[in-house]
Amino acid sequence: MRFSWLRSLGVVCRVVLCPLLLVACESLVARAGSFEFTVTDASGKPLPCRVSIQAPGGEGFVPQGAVELEFGPQRWFISPGYGKLEIPDGEVQLRIERGTEYQRIKEKVQIQGATEKTFQLRRWVDMKRRGYLCGENHLHVDTKKLAPMLVAEGLDFGTSLTWWRGPDPERPIPAGEGRVRRLTFAGRTVPTSVYDAELEYDWGAAYIQNLPKPLPLEADRKRPNLDYLRYAVQAGAIVHYQGGYAREVGLDSLLGCVHTVNVCNNNFALHRFQPRSRYSNLLEVPGFPIYPNTDVGMMRMNTDTYYRLLNWGLHLAAGAGTATGVKKAPVGYNRAYVRVGSSASLEEFYAAWKAGKNFVTNGPMLFLTTSGGRRPGDTISLPAEGGTVQVQVEALANQRLTAVEIIVNGEVAASLDVKDEHRVQGTVPLQIEAGAWIAARATARDELLSDQELRAYADHRDRKQKQFASSRLRFAHTSPIYVEVAGRGCAVPASIQEGLQMLDRFEAFAKANARAAYQQSIQSALAHARRELHARLEP
Q1: Residues 180, 211: one domain?
Q2: What is the reported pTM?
């Protein structure tokens, strides 16, 4: 009898408590829904893409084994065009994107038990049909993760910076032979150069693509970039600088060791930008402008410092790079569209980019031509009296276009009326009397996110990422068309004088920072560069 109360308790547990627990468990199971999705192209075939699925409280959902990314407040993953996730019942925010050529999807989805949905990504432009292939120059991503990212963003060619201030142990060179690896995901292949290198010291960030073998020079922060870039040019590689504000970019460009300067660079990322006003005048040249820490200010810093180099008479293509892997941004957010055939090799792509047959963008598409059929990278020859060049510009955008401009020698020569928010066309006659360069630029406003959603992309807490501010700015810029008058190209005296000041300030910087073993070669290089600039001042 003394254990009867225990037997009674057992009956209570079996009769009362177990059914209650069972009901509770059944309720929990009911709330655990699943979501199966498919993303297709116009033909109905699965289309690789980047996906974000987020609950109202901020929780993000990622399929097991998927390549995961994080940009601002969003948790994303790479999808081959389909997937299945366990998601609690309720409403989620779905976003689907694929590079720059597809309309983005952003909608609420109600999960109720086993939920299935199909989405179609629609092109708003087909750049391959227009004669362009795309790539970029600044990716710090191991090739194992890089393949899905390249395919999902619609890039035609890839790059892997396996040398970053020396061989990068986090991003090793993949197995194989030759300078190119064919990276594959979801049945699609992207040729990728894998002996690529970044120099990132106080001399300025420079990117080297398409080396035939790993960079053999030892990393030395006290060694100027010039030796590395001379080797790269001799090896047939393509050399890019992060921006026209880099301390050494002027010297190296005058010596023929630079092919492109990034106008769309890693100052800009998805829905945000980095305020870097301190980069405005790194050589501390008296009188140089300081650009405000706004998105427009940072764009102007990129463009104006590029224009100064072009005004010296240099032929430098517009460059683009994102720094994915170090910065939180999608692969190819800043990209170059290069005018080559649809079956072009990686070698042909880089050769055309070197020649300036391109434009760069993080949003709009931009086309520049003359009535004579000349396009970026080409040279027009005029007689001594000059002449009129009829310039035609077309800008297309999936966002709202805000400005389309024609630039001559760094100045706005014409602004086209933006009557259609998504397409602007115009022809402008330009009177050219002396050597010049002509380019086009366009800006757009990205209104996909609400103001509240956009504010979440400002990040002041992540010290590794420095500081980010939110932005709606998108922009594009062409490489120049060059105009020679009586055989002479562009030579803007004020810009050349600025260049001579830059070389003087660089000499002081090099004396203070370069190792003794490099001082003599730097002095020789500076003498050569000064002769180049003085020659451009001669009548």
Answers
A1: yes
A2: 0.93
